[in-house]
Amino acid sequence: MFPLSRQVHVATDFARGTVARLAGVEPPKWDDNEKSFAELIARVDRAIEAVKSFSAAQVDGSETRSVTRPVRGEPKVFTGINYLLQYSLPNFYFHTTTAYAILRHNGVDVGKGDFIGALD
């Protein structure tokens, strides 16, 4: 299993990379050098801002857009909708859930509400 920092790196890469690719652009490469909680939180904040930088209009109609990503070292071609639903979201939630589990296992006081957020 990846350590906590790597789980955060991968989850944030999926979040920002997915939106960018669905918008038809390749996301810029980020260094994966965050180690402290403060640095990891700053990376999450940066990823949220990256996602927010795209408008709905940039992503609208991407269901049929071709997205090619390496899967187990081989190029895999997805339609936009399959990339989102069958690859990106499952990976994002897997790594987010694993990060959450690592925190809980190590005694950090987080609960379900921290994972799913406020229900407004």
Radius of gyration, CA atoms, in whole angstroms? 15 Å
Helix content: 55-70%
Output the structural class: mainly alpha
CATH topology heading: Four Helix Bundle (Hemerythrin (Met), subunit A)
Number of helices: 5
Q: What is the CA-CA span between the terminal residues?
A: 34 Å
CATH homologous superfamily assignment: dinb family like domain
Number-wise, the strands total 2
Structure description:
By secondary structure, the protein is mainly alpha-helical. The chain has one domain (4-114): Up-down Bundle (Four Helix Bundle (Hemerythrin (Met), subunit A)), CATH 1.20.120.450. The protein is built from 5 helices and 2 strands; from the N terminus they run H-H-H-E-E-H-H. It has helices spanning 4-22, 37-52, 56-59, 80-105, 112-116, and strands at 66-71, 74-79. A two-stranded antiparallel ribbon has the order 1-2. A hairpin with a 2-residue loop joins strand 1 (66-71) and strand 2 (74-79). The longest helix has 26 residues, at 80-105. The model has no long low-confidence stretch (mean pLDDT 95).
